[in-house]
Structures are given as C-alpha cells and as structure tokens.
Amino acid sequence: MDKRDYYEVLGVSKTATDEEIKKAYKKMAKQYHPDLNPDSKTAEEKFKEVNEAYEVLSDPQKRAGYDQFGHAGANGTGPDFGGFGGFGGGFNGADFGGGFGDIFEAFFGGGGGGKGNRPQKGNDLRVDIQVSFEEAVAGIKKEITVERYEKCDTCDGSGAEPGTQPAKCTQCGGSGKVRMTQSTPFGQFQTVKSCPRCQGKGVIVEKPCKSCHGSGKVKRKKNIVVQIPAGVDTGSRMRVAGEGEVGTLGGPSGDLYVYISLAPHKIFQRKNDDVVCEHSISFVQAALGCDIQVPTLEGQVKLTIPAGTQGGTTFRVRGKGFPRLRGYGRGDQHVKIKVVTPTRLTKEQKEMLKAFAASYDGAPVGENPATDGDKDDKAPKGFFNKVFNRDDD
After folding, report:
1. Cβ(360)–Cβ(368) below 8 Å
2. Against a cut of 0.85, is the pTM above it?
3. How many C-beta atoms surround the C-beta of residue 364 within 10 A?
4. Which of 262, 254, 256 is nearest to 325 (CA)?
5. What is the CA radius of gyration of the chain?
6. Could you report the per-residue pLDDT of 126-164, keeping only the tens digit for each?
7. Digit-coded pLDDT (tens) for 163-181
8. Measured distance between the N- and C-terminal CA atoms of the chain, rounded to whole angstroms
9. If phi over 0 gives left and psi between -120 and 50 gives alpha, with beta otherwise, what is residue 309?
10. Which residues, other chains included, contact 227 with Cβ-Cβ below 8 Å and sequence gap of 6+?
C-alpha cells in the first residue's frame, strides 16, 4: 500500500514553518497515542504514521529530499543522498530514543509506553434496573446492590502485610517502565514498556497481605441508594460519581452507571412524554353522553363524553402524562373511546330496542325530525336496523 503524503498526514501545507509542523505533530500525536486510545485498533498505526511524517519534515535535510524526490528521497535512497541513516537515525538525533513513550513524554510530559506507576482511575460499573410507569411519573429512590473491588482495609490498599512496606522494584528502579533497544538495518530503535517484574507499579510486595493477597483490593457487595428522577424512560442513563471500583496507586474511584428500562403496563402505553389508554363505554352512554371516571397514573379523573360520540374518538386529558426530563411541564393522557355492543339481550330488551330502532331509523319521513324535509326518501338504516335485520329467536 502506498504511503500517504507526509504533509497530508500532519494536516499542514508544503510551505508550513518548522513551528507549524511541530504544533501539528503535537496535536496529532496526542490524538492517536496508544495510551490514550487503548480500545482503538487503528490508533497505533496512525501514531506510527504521524511519527514518521514528523521525523522527516522536522529535519531540514530530509525535508528537502522529500520535497524533491518524495518518499525515496526522505529515506535516503534518492540521488545524491548517500543514505543518512534513514528513519532510525532521526529519532536518535532528536533525542526521542525512537520509542512512542519517549516521544510522547518529550512533548507532553509524563510517562509513555504504558500507564506505569501513575495513579489510575478505577473501573466504571453498570447496573440495569426496571421502574414502573407510576415510579417513572413520580420519581423514586431505589436501593441497588453492586459487587465491586474496594480498598483492602487490612493493608489500606498497599497490598503489603501490615507492618511491612512494598519495596522499590530493582528492575525498573521504581519507575514502572523499562527501556528496550533493538538494532535493525535502519538503526537502533528504543521502546519503553511496563516493567514485567512489577507490572508497571514500580514496587514489589515481598510479604503480601493475607486479606487481599497483595492486590490491595477486595471484592465486596454494597447497597447504594439512587434517586431516579421523574420522567425517565427506557434508555435513560444515570451516572453516580465515585461509586465504581477503587482506583490504583491512589487514583480516583470509577463511576457507576445506572441504565433504566420502563416495565410494561397492563392499561397504559407511553408515547414520548404522553400516556395512551383505551376506555370502554356502552352504546347508550355513547348516544346520550355521560361523565365517566378515567384511570390515570395518579388516580381517577372525570371525563365528559359528549352525546353521539363514536367509537375510536380520542379525548385528551391535559397534564396527566410524564414530566419532561429536558424541559418544563408534562405530557398529556390520550383516552381512546371503545363503544361496547351488548352480546346477550333478554327478549324484553330486544323488543325495546326494536321499538327504538323503528322510531329512529325506520320512521316515515315527516315523523322523524332528523330526516324531515324530504318527502320521497325513508330515513337511512342505522345501527339498530343493522343489528336487528335478521330473524329473531
């Protein structure tokens, strides 16, 4: 695969000054440094590419060769260059030692090539909980149990048996890092890695604590009370600072993330911040109109049904939805009316309904005010004629 243009790699023009090139390199090296991108598979390759570009463009002689002959000139293989140590010599000449950690340390301070014996933040934890519709509307305090690593009380987190102290690692001299030099045809390359003897801690525990076996941490269960705010929905996430696992070498504890899901409700459904439900009424109530009691997440409310309401009509009850997490006010409740048709009628009830149907649907024109004015037509068949247009038992 062809190499990218070095100026393009650093994001500078071909007329960039040495200071502009250095500034661009610092920005790109920090962005792609492997220590700052532990989960990225491409960060290290991009970091190498950035280092290679800077190693050439920061050297006046190599930059001139690159500008004239491209990558061949930069590597010392173009005409009249005679080989100038190539890639490796430039690192050593710049006192970076060729290692990622040394380059990073030279520009940004601190140790590179691994976290070493620096304080490290503890791991974050995740807990999933479910809340009911009613709890989500009002907000609620929930007690949750987490299992996490905490500082060992016996050794106060040192990992050493009480009365003893960890000793400085003799292999790394307490730095937590070791430098390794490798000779290649292009020169010597130096890399900095975590010390294999102390695992980057800089100290060796010669007499481990019996409670934590030298780790300085023990696993415990802890009950934590969290305040669930009103209006949460499935997918809502809360961060509880400092309730994760204990840090290393005096670093801060991690955080606890609470992921929330909304339990299904047997009556209500949620749509954004609104609540939706169905409510059944009889066809008599629909025809005559009535006042009904409608359930909400906070109790019953009165809803007036106008006369002649059709099945499927939706009424809105303002302010009976969910509180808005990111804003003011609340959503509404939408009540969809379902008109129930009776399935079992007595003979007397049937006769009464037939009489009503005849007077309402089948009366001659002129006797029914609803259809008066048209002398040639009969009133259209309505609901009752459709129901009773069959043989009776």
Report:
1. yes
2. no
3. 10
4. 262
5. 39
6. 999 999 999 999 999 999 999 999 999 999 888 889 988
7. 888 888 888 888 888 887 7
8. 89
9. beta
10. 139, 140, 141
